[in-house]
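Good morning N.,

You mentioned wanting to compare the apo and holo forms, so I went ahead and generated the holo version with 2-oxoglutaric acid. This is what I fed in:
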Amino acid sequence: MGFVNRDREAGDLTRQICNAWKSDRTIARTVLGERIGRWCAMLRGWPGARINQDNVLWKPPRARPVGFHQDDGYQSWVVPPEMATCWIALDDTHPEGGTLEYARGSHRWGLSPPEVEFHAPDDPMQEMRAAAARAGAEPEIVPVVVPAGGGAFHHGRTYHGSGANRSERHRRAVVAHCMSSEARFHPTNVGYVYGRYKRVGSDEMDESFFPILWREDGYRTPFLDGGA
Ligand SMILES: O=C(O)CCC(=O)C(=O)O
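and this is what came out, ligand included:
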């Protein structure tokens, strides 16, 4: 018996897998890299970094935009509710090919709750423009144009998204979203997805699910390098 999930099968949407590291060693080797953790921690001033989630994204030709958003806006289940992200292109990227785009300096505009659809909103920049107006800023959009294997790091408050893929090329990317090595579950704000990993009566994050990639004291979750 089979069925078609029209939202998932629609040819004009970006396909997304979350936490592919759990089922693919190549993805795991990439997103759980020590250097990604170190640089994310340095970017946010954390004593270390652990994985929050990864994404594998595939935007085929003619796929619609991804709405501009702040990653920190989705972190109310984490204390501190902060992210830093490493986005890695798997194909050469081009401004017309739906590559990642940043609103320059937008990490200084404050944090706003997410409102617009992530996948294929009618106006992918609506939320970002409203935040810019509140901050008295003029949005400047910077496309991430890199060869395959290149990428960029962004602060969890940086507004980012990607336009429609107006080219005939596929645009694929793998993304490591990190949080502080000190992160704990919010005691009462238990998220729908990640609440499944929270033990009753504890706010501790288990390294089996949120391994530590790098810490300034030299610690790294042992199983990442083959330890127990
Ligand atoms: O690759 C994209 O189109 C969006 C990626 C994104 O939202 C992210 O890396 O946080």
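DSSP finds four helices and twelve strands in the chain.

Happy to go through it together on a call whenever suits you.

Best,
F.
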